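Pinned message: reference record for Cation transporter
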Amino acid sequence: MRLRSAALAAFVAVCAVAFPTHAADPLSLDEAFLRVSEAHPNLRLFGARQEALEAELDRASLRPALVAGAELENVLGTGPASRLDGAEITLSLASVLERGGKLDARRTLAQSRIDALAIGREARRLDLLAEVARRYLAVVGAQRQGELAQLDIDQRERTVAAARRRHEAGASPESVVLTAQAALARAELDHARARQREEAARQHLAALWGERDPAFEIAGGDPLAVPQVADFAVLADWLQRTPELAQFVDQQRIGEARLQLARSEATPDLDWQVGVRRMTDGDDFGLVGSVSIPLGSTRRAQPGIRAARAELTALEIEREAAGLSLYSTLAEAHGRFMVARLEAQRLGEDVLPRLAKAEAAAATAYRAGAASYLEWSSLQAEHAAARQQQLEAALEAQRALVEIQRLTGQAFVAGSGPQDNQGATP
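Predicted structure (tokens):
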């Protein structure tokens, strides 16, 4: 059975793009997906496993071997049997006649294991792509934090310049200038920390495809562009098609094949043998043959049948438990997404515009001597904190979105609904 990777294609369409030819070329999320898909050892491992399972299928398809034999009687004894003249030689051919569909049951079991391996590979691939998206998002978030820190630096530099002018004019003490300079140094520290965090996140991303000294820049993206998702009821319906649950379908097929193989053991096989024998006197020959069948096969097969049935029952319970766990994870991720998306949206629409106006007004008042440095500095700090809060909320929404995509196998892009054939860049 060839697995249709619809869930994977819905999560992200890994386009046939080339790797960057120069270190300065920006690395897109699709290119990161492609690198991991081709280089990660956890995915390459499935190729070796498939070869082993295909060998098992070939072995399961073999019929019982033919056994050629030779038997020599009445030789090296006493009396007339002390010579070779009275020897009886029998040449035989023997094998086992399998009954009860054992050959087909073995083939079905081996093929089911191969099919399950394909499902498992797609599930693992989906998990890896989700991890790529998370690490790529970490780089994007660190870049955005660096941009916010640079905005804060620019603000603080203007504040230092204004405080120095007022101090030189004798309108404020030197302590105000020193305080403004300390705030500027703190903003520069935040910027340096963001740059270091970006470098660490880039190294963490490159480790997924084994690159030890990453020199690439990422294409980036706007983490504040948080898309909408479908209603939770629709997401829960998509959850039923996730590879994590699809694996149980193949596991059930394997269990059913094992049960059929155990049932076939209840039908005894026939051991047969035919041959030709040279008689003691003269050169006469005769045919010989035998057939044997074991007794009590039905009774001996019952423990295996009960064990196979119990495994099927346990598998159904495991699937139910996995379904509940995935549903709970989806509910938690959807809740985090909705809360974080609302927070980021309200901060951008209501809070930040008002804080920007208040800060501009405080700057004008400070330069005119109508407001203190403390009032202006407090508004600057509050504005920077609100920008940082919006970014953290947007990143949390994007992380929850990646988890929703991993669980449902659906992709979402900003300003639209689910996409069946297009990936979403967090």
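Pinned by admin. Summary line: The radius of gyration is 37 Å.
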